[in-house]
Structure formats: C-alpha cells, structure tokens
Specification:
homodimer; 328 residues; mainly alpha; two-stranded antiparallel sheet; globular
Chain lengths: 328, 328
C-alpha cells in the first residue's frame, strides 16, 4: 500500500507547480486565498496521477501530460468546494471548508475560478507541441466529465428525498458524480500521449470501472472505516444516504425490515447506526457492496490487457487494487 | 433604437436553438429546468449578436459563428445565476431568480452546468469546419473572460466594504466584470470569421470599450432610468455601491460633503436617495459619468476604422450608440 501512496505523490510536486502558476496571478487576494485553500490542503492527487500514468502507458511523455493533470485536479477541487456548500459540510481534507472561512459567495466564486482555470490550464497543453486536434479531444473529454459531475450531484440530491432508487439509478449516479472524472483522467492522458483509438477506449473503460469501484469503496469505508478521515463511522446512515448497501438491503429485506430500515434512515440520528447496520448485515448488503467493487476492479484491470507491458501499466494495475483495499 | 433591438433579436432564434440542443439532454429534470429557466426568460442577447456581427465584419459565415454565440450567452447566463445568489437578488429578467425557485444548491449546480455546456458548445465549432487552431484561440479568449468575470465579481464584493476605491480600480473592476465577456464576444467572432491579427485586435478593442460604456450606462440608468427594468431608481445608492458617480463625487467633494455622502451610502435606506443625488449633482458626477461613457463609445467606434465597410460594421457602429442611449 505504501508504494502506491508514494506513486500518487510522485507527480504531486510538478502538478502543484502547474496549479500554483495558474492561480498566483489572481486578484483580489481574497479570491486567490479562497481558490488556493483546498489545493494547499493536499488530497490524494489520484486523478493527476492516473492521467500521467495513462499517458506513459501509451508511450507519451510525462512532461506533456502535466498541464492536463493539473487541470483535472482543478476540476476536482472546484467540485469539492461547490459540493461542500450544497451539502453544508463544514470540513474538507482536515481543514474548514472554503465557505466556512470565506463565506458562501466567495466560495461559489472560488469554485467558478478554479473551473475556468482548469480549462485555461489544459488549453496551454497546445504550447507543449501537442497537436491542436488532440488538445480539443482531451478538452472534450474533460468538459463532458464536468457536465456529468453536475448531473451526478443533482441526482444525488434528488435521491435524498426518495427511497425508490434502483441499483441501476445508483450506478448511473456514481458513474456521473465520481466515475466520469476518473475516466476522463485516464482518457485524457491516453489522448495526450498519442494513443490509438482502441488504447483510448481501453484506458477510458479502466477509468470508468475504477471510478465506480472508488465510490463504492467510499461508501463502504463510511460504514466500516476508521474516523481518521474526518467523518464519523456511519454518517451516511445518519444522513439517510442511498448507498449501494442501503439499496441492496431495501431490495432484499422482508416488508418488516424494509419499513424499519426506512424509519431508521429518516430519523437522522446517530442512535440508529447499530440497528441499521444489523439490517444491512442480515441481508448481506456489505458483502454485496464488496463484491460489486471487486467486480469493477477486475474489469478495470482486464481493460488494460491489450496495452503493451510497461511500468505505468503495472502501476495502474496496482492502483486498482489500492482503490479496493484503501481504508481512507 | 427600434432597429437595433430588431438586430439583437435577428440571431436570437438560431442561438436559442443551439442552447436548447445543448441543454435538452440534461438529467434529472430538475437540473434541466433550473438550467433553462433564465435562458427562457429572454434577455437582450447582446453578446451573441456582437459575436455574429464581428464574424460577419471580417467576412466570416454567420452559420459558423452560432455555436460560439450560444456559448457566450451560456457563460453570461451562468454568471447571472451565480451573481444573483451572491448578491441575494430575488428577481432577474422580470422573473424570480433561479435560487428563489429551486434553492441555492440547485442554482449553484445550474450555473456550473451552463458553464460546462458553454465549453461543450464552443468546442462543437470544430465540427463546422473551423480549423482546430482557431477553435482553441476562440476558446482561450472565452476562458480568459470567465476568469476575469470571477475576478471582477470578487473586486465588486470587496468594494462593498470600502470607500477607498479609485477611478482606476473601478474601471479595472467593470472591465473584468462586464467588459471582458463583451470583448470576448467580438474577439471570438473575429477569430472564428478568420480575421487577421489587426482585425482581431480592432474588434477586441471595440468590445472592451463598448463593455465599459455598457456598465457605466447601467450605473447611470440605475440613477435616472425608469423602473420598468425591475430595479427601483437609486437602488445602487441604497446598496452603497461604488459607481463611477459615487467615486467621482467622493474625489471632488469638500470634506463636509465627502463625509456626508459616506454617511448616506452606509445608511442602506431609501430615504437617502434625494440628498445623495443632490451631492452627486453638485459635483457634476452624473455629467462626468456620461462623458466617460461617451468617450468609450467614441473609442469603440474608432477601433472599427480599419475594418472594410460592410453592413455588419455599420451595425456595430449603431450598437455603440445604442449602448450609450439605451434606457433599460
């Protein structure tokens, strides 16, 4: 596990340099500070690493992938800032959320700024001797992911008010909310690296499956993980979130347990956690989620089969296992 | 005046078609409704018209300019939705603001969606046989304007808490907040139309001066105009806004009037309007603003001198006068 974290960190410095360069000219200072706050707070930098590795896996140069990598991190950070306002979350990456420090108006603006800066940054890839057509293709992939992120967040918000969420609805929502940008990362990396059509498809599929596994694992960690990530265990249950575990249990449960689970999930109180967990376990919901995440990890790895062997390909394989095994 | 309004409407239908096409696939329905709300409410469609006219003025085809035109309107609408949340404005274009109908979270998301859709739409210009390099150049201009819009809004918010705003500060703020996107419209139109470097520069300068005149006129209308635009006359004074009139009066006033004007502008009460107007008039602030707007209109028109004569050029000339003479 340690070496994967090292890999994720390997490109962090270069990517941060690109991001700093993009943001340090912003005025006024307040906007600059609000925009850089979360970037400085760290984060795993999973998307930039995936983008660079995908570029390497098709024989592309790392240097030329860095601007798109920074761009993906800027998009991710923009979406976190706006999500935290919408979900009224107080902390992020162990620090107060942007809107908690600068207020909602400045946080909205900081998100918008990072969004625009993301595009400015990927467009600069054209200065790295990447053909214009390829830059446009990479951009198209990123823009498409941004639209999906918005749709995914809207679906997630809509699911808050209903228990009529099917597994298909859930998978569509997490693909859009989380999978699309992770998939855009490997896809853009492949495009910038000069990949063939089938290589782009392979790496896009890898990213899509990885992204879905990533989100299922996120939901799993919330139920079982430690509290070091800053969220109390079971907080999704208290919030009544429609995770894959909840959807599966509601689908399998007898009428009595079904109605009781809904009762518990609408109480919005910490005291419901043990009983809700019991119902989830009774219907094998946690094992089901693990299996579904694992299927996606296998699918992600299989997608890479046709790529030539390389260190980057190996690392992408390891990253898939990391996503399944991570505890935070 | 009537024929200019007709000109603005001339391309509205085509532009709306592009926008509808961009938005009608959005899911869920709530996000689609919130995203299309303001678009359906109308608006002058000044930016799309400017983009198409700039394209025509350099000999480009109208058809090929429509996607970028739609893209500019999407950016404008995104910024209005987010501004209304930040400024806590209840109405826009005679309708309730998006956040008043769907709540702040969905309004943030609707803005983000339009922002992403704007880029998706301009990228599609590549499908209209426009060389990739030119699409990237047009995109660069739009992205740069988006960053400036965010900076301009942040500066505007910052000015709320201080009376130490110079005319230079003000002009920088309104250029970023309003001028940059209007200038991006004429610049992108020229680029897509296949303009030479000096033609692009001429049309960019035209847009910049026009945009500044437009914003000064907006401030002027607030003080003198009718209430048919949905804002009470003098509302900027009640809000204590640092318009060019206020900045000029504070700069010229004797210490007594200076301090009294600040007192009035910090009262946030409608009763201050007559006395504040009196001080503005005493120091010729309103005439000063008119003269400054007029200078910018003249400069905008002069920028077009080097362009070949055409109907589009004539219309751009008329539009400059329209901006100076409009009452709403």
């Amino acid at each position: 596990m340690v070496d994967v974290i090292e890999i994720l960190k390997r490109y962090s410095e270069d990517v941060n340099k690109e991001i700093d360069e993009a943001l340090n000219t912003l005025e006024p200072e307040t906007l600059r500070d609000a925009s850089t706050h979360l970037v400085k707070a760290g984060g795993k930098k999973l998307r930039p690493a995936l983008e660079v590795l995908a570029c390497q896996a098709v024989g592309g140069e790392t240097e030329k992938a860095l601007k798109a990598a920074a761009s993906l991190e800027l998009i991710h950070t923009f979406s976190l800032i706006h999500d935290d306002i919408m979900d009224n979350d107080d902390t992020r990456r162990g620090m107060p959320a942007v809107h908690k420090v600068w207020g909602e108006p400045m946080a909205i603006l900081a998100g918008d700024t990072l969004f625009a800066k993301a595009y400015e940054t990927i467009i600069k890839t054209a200065d790295d001797n990447i053909p214009y057509e390829r830059v446009i293709d990479a951009l198209r992939v990123e823009v498409d992911a941004c639209i999906k992120i918005c749709e995914g967040q809207a679906l997630d918000m809509e699911f808050e008010d209903t228990f009529e969420v099917s597994e298909e609805d859930y998978l569509n929502m997490i693909y859009k909310k989380t999978g699309a940008l992770i998939s855009a990362a490997t896809s853009a990396g492949a495009i910038i690296g000069g990949a063939s059509t089938y290589q782009i498809e392979a790496l896009t599929n890898y990213g899509k499956s990885l992204g879905i596994a990533f989100q299922i694992q996120d939901d799993y960690i919330d139920l079982t993980g430690d509290e070091s990530i800053g969220k109390p265990v079971g907080s999704d249950l208290v919030e009544g979130k429609k995770t894959i575990m909840v959807i599966h249990a509601l689908q399998k449960a007898n009428p009595e347990d079904h109605d009781r689970l809904i009762e518990l999930l609408t109480a919005h109180d910490e005291s419901i956690i043990p009983e809700a967990m019991e119902i989830l376990n009774k219907y094998g919901a946690i094992n089901y989620a693990r299996a579904l995440a694992y299927d996606n990890v296998i699918h992600a790895k299989e997608s890479l089969t046709l790529l030539p062997d390389s260190e980057a390909k190996n690392t992408l394989m390891k990253l898939a296992d990391f996503v399944f095994n991570r505890k935070s």
